[in-house]
Amino acid sequence: MSQTQQTPLTYARITEDVVRMVDKPSKKWWALFLPTVALVGLGVTCFFYQVATGLGVAGYRHPVFWGVYITDFVFWVGIAHSGTLISAILYLFRARFRMSIYRIAEAMTVFAVLTAGLFPIIHLGRPWNFLWLIPYPNSRELWINFKSPLVWDVFAVSTYLTVSSVFFLVGMIPDIAAIRDKVKETPRKIIYSILSFGWKGSNKEWLHYTRAYLYFAALATPLVLSVHSVVSWDFAMGNVPGWHTTIFPPYFVAGAIFSGLAMVITLTVPIRKIFHLEDYITLDNYDGMAKLIIFTSCIVGYAYAAEFFMAWYSGSPYEWGQFVYRATGEYAPFYWTMVICNCFVPIVLWWESVRKNIKALFVISILINIGMWFERFNIIVISLSRDFEPGAWGIYKISFVEAGITIGSFAWFFMFFLLFVKTLPAVSIAEMKEILPVPKKGG
Amino acid sequence: MDQGVVGIYSYQDSVLSAVEKLKEAGYRNMRVFSPFPDHEIEAAVDLPESPVRFFTLFGGLLGATCGIGFTVLTSSAWPIAVSAKPIVSILPYMVIVFELTVLFGALSTFLGLIINSLIRQRTPVRLYDERFSDDKFGVAVICEKEKIGAVEAILNSTGAEEIKFDEA
Lengths: 443, 168
Fold this sequence. Notes:
Distance between the termini of chain A: 30 Å
Number of strands of chain B: 4
Radius of gyration of chain B: 25 Å
Helix content of chain B: 40-55%
CATH class of the largest domain in chain B: Alpha Beta
Number of domains of chain B: 2
Number of helices of chain A: 15
Number of helices of chain B: 5
Strand content of chain B: 5-15%
Oligomer: heterodimer
CATH superfamily of chain A: Formate dehydrogenase/DMSO reductase domain
Strand content of chain A: under 5%
CATH topology of chain A: Formate dehydrogenase/DMSO reductase fold
Shape of chain B: rod-shaped
Largest sheet of chain B: 4 strands, antiparallel
Number of strands of chain A: 0
Distance between the termini of chain B: 10 Å
Radius of gyration of chain A: 23 Å
Shape of chain A: globular
Largest sheet of chain A: none
CATH architecture of the largest domain in chain B: 2-Layer Sandwich
């Protein structure tokens, strides 16, 4: 561990360390930030090329008209989930290991939903018509179809974005106030003063704040479960072999939390190193996350097995044919990548030495994210490429435009994240102080 | 004419004893500043339960009502049978009702927090010290000008390291 461990954590040191994080960006930060902006540019270029040329450049061929964009959408919504899990559900369970990582996880949630929300629009041939999904009075006096899972999705994802953004901003108010009181330069002081809503940390403010936080957590908990359930219904409500199953909501929610936790590890490992946060994000934090990964990996593994069993047990040749095709057909390498990354790789986390080995965790977390991306790809693309009618079967290949936009989406996500760690408190100052022993004169 | 006085402390138990003594002496209009939410301070000051919960409840109920009204009224306004379902299908509408309940509930909780915590509290700015967000606690009392001396004595006797006055 680093030299920072020699000085124990004190209230003053916590404030100082977090204020130092939002100081002037270093060359290293620019070296990370500028390439992400360039890659966002690549994604945007691909998008405009697609709009100008048509959806044909997206590799959509009969019968597969939901491809990488929908895969990316489900992937990013999934990534968003563990942020709320860590900030709301673990808050209600009073799990202390969440304290140092929850701000990063919440930021990840907000940026991942921002990224996810782009994909249904990118996926449209005429993206400017996305407004038709939103209910508003119009000259045709026609309203949207509230029985459609796609409309539920609009409500679920936009509610999730709003609520998680509010939760994120409210959580930061006391910490921004602490930064406001430390920074000297006038423009920054003004910005932080506005963002802190004039917070002073009096007992009355804390009283209302802690209650509001509790209610936010209580509202966000069922919301997070509902959002990925609704996303899974986009598929499960359709009568397509491989989609039409009741296991989807819990399977998707568990998968979302699984991939989101892996992404938290992927993001916190470099941040911890760069900003010397070893005293904040401790090995016990990683141990807790790794245990949750084991738990959700078991659920996901069980879901894979249950899907296969139900396909066989249903007696439906279409259903069984679909699953045999997944494991043995043209897409089999993708299927087995998913199984290995999501079911077998996390087995090593049963060993405590692996759970507390940062490098190993980093590699495992990336493998899990690769596996979870392929899980969505398998569900969406393989199911569509072989449904009921053999004459209508077809193969879908990812086009360079789709690859460019997918890479651009990762860059878009990391761009926001880099801006966040340099401008806002990435570690919760107030909550870190809360877990330190209270200073008492009487000892 | 009321005046404010604030004592700055490093130790939480000194703050608790100051709060107790001030309460015994009959001072109710006080604020305790801390860098983090402290349950012992909350219990010592003993404020009535926060009204934010009513904002959450009201927002949630309003959201649910809007969700039901919106879905039922719009589908009845132009009846088209979709997916072989009744014109008004309550079960699928529950998804919209649920999402709007959470959305309105969360937004009105936020409103409740802003109104109660940041607009209604009216702490004189000069009683605030920038160290309260860092590593110090503060006990501020607003009382009649004549009683300032007595409050100052209590703050001093409980170990305040520094005392400031609000001259306004």
